[in-house]
Fold these 2 entries.
Entry 1:
Amino acid sequence: MGFHLKLDHIKVLYIEGSHWGDTPHSHDDVYQISVPLSGQVITELNQKTLDLKEGAVLITNPHSRHAHQFDVPSSMFLIGLDRKSLNAWNNNNSNEEISFIEQQTISPVAVKKQVKQWFDLYLFHSHEDTIIKDIENEAFQLFTSFFRGSHSVERKQHLPRISDHLILHVLDFIHTNYHEEINVDTLAAIANQSKYHFMRSFKNYTNLSPHQYVIRTRIERSKELLTNTSRSIWDIGYEVGFNNPSQFHRNFVSVVECTPLQYRMKQ
């Protein structure tokens, strides 16, 4: 029993039960992170048997043969990171691939909280390309910064930076098209960067992810309309780019800390 969150380059599988196991196998194109949450997970990695309990983590690099088994009531996350995408995110014009240290530790509570946040974002914004890229970017950042491996030996000390000229083009595009669905690939092309390097450098420049910046731009425009027009709140929400009233309400409260109606009544 469990649930499955499947994005373009990240998969999260939650498994629980008393008697469960998979057969020994390997992945050519995935880094797999096994995170026990309760009970005991018996794992096999390259013909070695390991007992994993809460707090322990097993990271299976591509091509490593592995298996899992529950003999007592247990639960775990299996998190898969796409090999090509993770290395593209981590490296700029480099052919070196990440190799994680296989046995590490992490707080299960922190992982549960983070996965819940990703699941909630995906559930409410699954139609938006920018939010999926945000989740993937956060996951790559989390796991490469927390888990040790070859990438942490020569960790890059700076993020790729968008030039002032290009960032102004990106921001101008957002301010002009905020009411439409904005694709991260389009923004990255304007910035002349790969999508993952763009997302990192955009956040370094603005302190917001592209998705967060678009949302705030929409909210700022909606505040103007709420103040200066008598149009209905739902019409305003649709005009600035939200697909339904609940999405507009939820994002407005998150940014402004009051409802659209409360904001209008205070003006």
Entry 2:
Amino acid sequence: MSIYYKYDWDEENKELTVYINPTEAFYEFSVEYAGNHDKLSKRKNLLDAARKLASEVLSKGTEVNTYRVKFQQFLIAVLDEKNGATRELIEGPACGNYKVKQNDSLKDIAQMFSVDEDSIRKVNQLDGDTLFIGMNLKVPCYLHTVVTSDSLLKIAQRYDISRESIRQLNHLDTDCLKIGQELKIPKRTQ
């Protein structure tokens, strides 16, 4: 079974958009894709799978300039056909906001959301660890749209993150969710 389950073809730009099969666990896929081990190999596999799909669904001899890789509605990578070069693209980097409280440290906040300190520094353009009370700190995250079978517990388990970190980032007072509600899920680090 292919990692991709559907596609869109843009004739004008010679661009094939491929969608990662929703049965793939997003957290597992993103760790494998973004992890330091075999990073190039994973990207090569994405490109090879996209090329294979193109050969099956497009007319023979159709030229493809780029492959856009999407997971649900999120664009996670653009793969150039020329020389197999890869450039990553995240559509409007998703971030949640956390208001710094008294005695909060960067380390404490990173641990609370299970993200690494460097990611928080980078997304907030911080040179050091200095934080100020009341400062709005961005926290890197995924976006998740609630579906019928979702519960906060199931979502937390799917992304391997605590329910409390999801509650904190989304300012939730309860575990009750609404279908179609968009949740920010902290990008958990290993």
